[in-house]
# Entry
Amino acid sequence: MSTDRVYPSTWARRVYGRLVRLYPRGFRDLYGEEIEADFVDMLQHDAAAPSASARIGGWAIVLRDLAASIPREWLTTLRTRPSAPTPRGPGPHPRPRRRGELMSDLLHDVRYTLRTLRFNRGFSAMVVATLALGIGANVAMFSVVDAVLLSSLPYRDADRLVMVWNRHAGTGADKVQVSGPDFLDYRSQTSSFEDFAYIHNSPDNTLTGGTGGRDGPAEQIDVGYVSTNFFRFLGREPTIGRAFAADDETSDGATPSVISNGLWARRYGSDPDIVGRTIYIAGNAMEVIGVMPADFELVLPYSESGVTGDGATFMVDVWRTLSTRTLPNVPRSMSILRVFARLEPGVPVRQAQEEMDLLARRLQDDYRVHSERRTAIDLMPMHADVVGSVKPIILSLFGAVGFVLLIACANVANLTLVRAANRRREVAVRVALGAPRWRIVRHLLAENTVLALGGAAAGVLLARAIVGGIVGVAPPNVPMLNGVGVDSRVLVFALGITIVAMLLFGVWPALRGTRVAPLMHLNDGPRGGLGRGRGRAHRVRAGIATAEIALSLVLLVGGGLLIRSFLLLQGARLGFEPKSVLTAKVAMPHGAYDDATFRANYWTALRRQVLELPDVEAAGLVWPLPFADQSPDAPYGPTGGESEDWGRYVAVVATASPGYFEAIGATLIDGGGRTFEVADLDRDNAIAIVDEVMARRLYPGESAVGRTVWIQPLGSDEKLAREIVGVIKHIRHNTLAGPEREVLYELATSTRRMVLVVRTGSNPVAALPELRQIAASLDPNMPLFDARTLGEYVRDEIAPTRFTMTLASAFAVVALVMAAVGLYGVISYSVTQRASELGVRVALGAHDGAILRLVLRQGATMAGLGIAIGLIASFGLTRIIRSLLVGGGVAPTDAPTLVGVSLLLAGVTMVASYFPARRAARLDPVVALRKE
Amino acid sequence: MRSSKDQTPAIAPATLHILLALAAGPLHGYGVMRRAAEAGMKMGPGTIYGALHRMREVGWIEPAGFEKARGPLKQRRRYGLTAEGRKVLQAEARRMVQVADLVRAHAVSVDDGDAAR
# Structure
């Protein structure tokens, strides 16, 4: 700041001088000095006034003047550029175009544009923000689509990989794993495949020792039994050591094993000399031969009937081979291998499938288990199989953000149209002065390009944040999400949609905006005349707003349905009470603990000691735990004899100890007998508890208590009789909604693997250290693992719906806000345009209420039409919407949701039109008329 | 409100005030600004000179010599109305009278409105 006494200060003069330089050169040369001199005179004149407000008022005029006149002079100058505007009257001056002129024209356009936009900050900010939201959401969703659906699996020749599943046409079970002997037959009796590989996932193996126990306490790890070609097949090699060799299957001595990078770092401190070390898994000596790289991740499809915990990503700590002696000797009913194959180059899946169909028929002829199950072999391209369950969800969400972008473009188009209408006079001047229309169009396009690029840049930044959020809420069943990010492919996509967006919001309004008749607009002030064009222009804007409302209704329907289905799942009748229940797994290593009495005593001791803890209200053991583990299905029936019906009913068979039903909070049905008791352990324990569904199937209309049920356990030809001692309400095991298999609970005595279920009085997690201590004191080689509350399992089950719901409703809210803003803009503008008409109405005696109603009706018409179109569109999109409602329970045409979101949208649009309506009603007729 | 038969289009307020300011005789830019401000139309220099420039181009005003000035500028250009400019001003005045009649015909009280403002 200057201390000069002159007013305005030299500093202010200098700033003003700078600003004056923003005028076009020719204009500046002619008037610059006079303008600067006038500026000083003007402010000095104002300063003579006594009040400070006069001074401020003078500055306000000066600034507004600059903001308005600099762009205006630029517009007028453009016709004669680069020479200065001459006082010699208007008219085009055709002159030969020189090389490089186009480029300098473009540069000029951009410079000019930036300047114009700077003087329209509100408009520019609005457009950039709207586009940023639309583009950002789309770029983020595309990153997900790119990572999950478009990227190939991280394996060699991944496009030729197929999964080999069994399907039991008899029971309808599909995606069933393959047995050892079948795998060998597939490999030897087909010609369409380059190679086959398998993995058998075996969770919960106790890893102990090293030498002298220096590797720390026992730990539960997941072991993958794989074919020797497994790593070569996938195209990945260990970073240290070697992969399996063919003779590893037959070698005697310590079993070769490859360990994961995670285990290597976690347990062995990334020891570079790990190769050759002996480790013990379930008491068996294994020799480490290699360490896999950190980024090696096993992404495999979900199996519908996997024996153990499945997921998109296999968490395997140790890979080992199965002995060649084992594989052929496993019964063909033991479907334990997840088999995949690589097609011969050029062989289509269909051709390979035909070969497999023939083989399946041969196997049905040769083996009874296959003819009984009517085993078919299904090939499925691996990538499609991996993403199968999430693909429709991701695509639907991608579609939803597409709608958001459309709405954003519609909004911006409306803003641009309004602006074009306001600038019609400028455009008219330029047309009158001889500027060719394409040139004006080009200017508007340059402006829109700058805005679109601004929006795109902000959108990409926003997308990074959104992607972070999506990954944060994504459920574990979305595969390959860790590869997600804003990479070059995503940027190309961003550029693509920006161009599309620009075409949608920019080009068309630019073409429209320049279609002016100069005489009509030249002399009638900035508001434009009441020409015939105005009614049409309004209809166009109203049409766009209506379309926005329709689009946002579709999104709201999707979001609303998902919220409803989420709420439904949250309120689902589980059949148990997850609050305050802690669970932890215990597993006895195979090869040790072979004494059944020892095992039974162990479980009894564990349960008894846990029950002695002060805060524990109930404790029991079970396998499998609801929503945690899968269990093989077993056929059952009321009689054990040979019958045609056998196999028609299939149940989940679980084992449970006394106290389990109390701990999980299950309820017996009326007259449902009793739960397991400690005394049962010492008696004849051929007893069972069944759920109400099974009881009804077995003995419809009668009490099942005291009756007999026959079951045939997995891999057994024998049928076993069990006396039903209790009937409980169904405990959900796999899904929160929809039909489920009935469950039969056998009394757990000497099983090898159980889940400890503990109901506590207060905080369940607080009990964990004491539980661990009990387990360690009973047997240090059997640590508790996977300790989680029951509530967490249930939450994970809701997670996919929560994910879809969160995204879909976020998109819907953005759409709703944008549509409301769009409608507000259109009505607001229309009120301004109709100010004089409304003024006359008021002058002629119309009430405030009448004006309010008039304007509100305008909004209501658009909203009503938009909602109607949106509802029709939602019905049309029922199939897509249904794919989002994974949990089931809510129909895509759920009436309360449709009515609810329609009302919501109607309410919001009414609020959006209320504000301009109120302004119209408060219009001072004289002011309105004087404007004209 | 204008009827569609009305052939004279309205002119922008800035233009009108410049024409009015110059009606009494030639003035320089700052003089126009002061005169307009006294009539209630406050405009900055950029607006004034832009309008003067365009009005000169369409032949409504013309340069009318120079006036000696104090300050950094030794002299200031003066502008005066052309016959064409005077005709435009008269036409605009007639149009405004018609508008005023129209407003009265719609029974809008002009006095009340002025008092309210």
Q: What stands out?
A: Chain A is about 50% helix and 15% strand. The CA atoms of residues 497 and 562 of chain A lie 27 Å apart. Chain A touches chain B through 49 residues (CB under 8 Å). Confidence is low (pLDDT under 50) at residues 81-99, 305-312, 523-533 of chain A.
